[in-house]
Amino acid sequence: MHKPSIYGFTFERLVSWLAEHGHKPSRARQVWDWLYRKRVTAFADMTDVNAACLQLLEEHFGIQTLGEHTKQESADGTVKFLLKLEDGNLIETVLMRHKFGLSVCVTTQVGCNIGCSFCASGLLAKSRDLSAGEIVSQIMKVQLHLDAAGQDERVSHIVVMGIGEPFDNFENMVDFIDIVKDHKGLAIGARHITVSTSGLANKIVEFTDRNIGVNLAVSLHAPNDELRTRIMKINRAIPIEPLMKAIDYYLSKNKRRVTLEYILLRDVNDQKEHALELAELIGDRRQMVNVNLIPYNPVDEHSQYQRSDQESIRIFYDTLKKQSVSVSVRLEHGTDIDAACGQLRSKQIKASV
User: Kindly report the CA angle at 345 between 220 and 342, in degrees rounded to 5?
Assistant: First the structure.
């Protein structure tokens, strides 16, 4: 029988669980410190925790429950990990190097049911959600990789943009954020964490009401319903109007920008008229919205889509700028490996079949 990872406990829940089993809050602080500051991978290494507590933890939990199936390293320092869960499923986690620090992109589900027509993540349907412990374990796996290199580097930023729809695994995602933010542990600041959604409007509202404090990114990818429905089937259920209302609700409660993710597909959504329509859609939200243009990483199974050429990207960018829209072009990472999200996993599973 698989033991759940102790990484799935928030600090408050660890305190409560240990109290139920006869241990004081100070014991939870010791265990937490060993997990996230000293980063041991065996309970036996927690040398100042009493034997009874260690035996209790050993009986009920594992620590690092992810195995490394494959690892790809790019010339630019990007590392893509294909990790194996205890049930044999595979997930992707990516380490990216930026001028501002080290960022990790985590996965929240095994497969994805959103079904964006350009995305490698949705090539394989969702089979289950990840637990909070399995999501935290991805961060710890990367941090242990950095520790082993001996360069005194630490994960400083997190993007919840890997395989799956984070808001479709809402409670586990929220617990994950609570755990990695905790100042007694990894202490990754809320402003250094970004969660991306394909547009679950009701969950954006709940996310806002929870006052979680992290950044929000929304995968828009088209400026109108007809085009968005064609490339993102979720738009049939949640069109742009209710999505923008949910974004407005978020903006009304927060003092930070929302990022609109916009993947550029050649001759599909990358023309000047699309940029003008996007600027019109953003309207008076200009001061609180940033558009992040994403050059497309081609996927063999989605050969109908190609990367926009540099001139089209430049015109799209300049058009938004002239309309006073804040816009950036995402820096590319790992283009010499399986860069598209879900691509490495899909290839490995198909090869095994």
Answer: 10
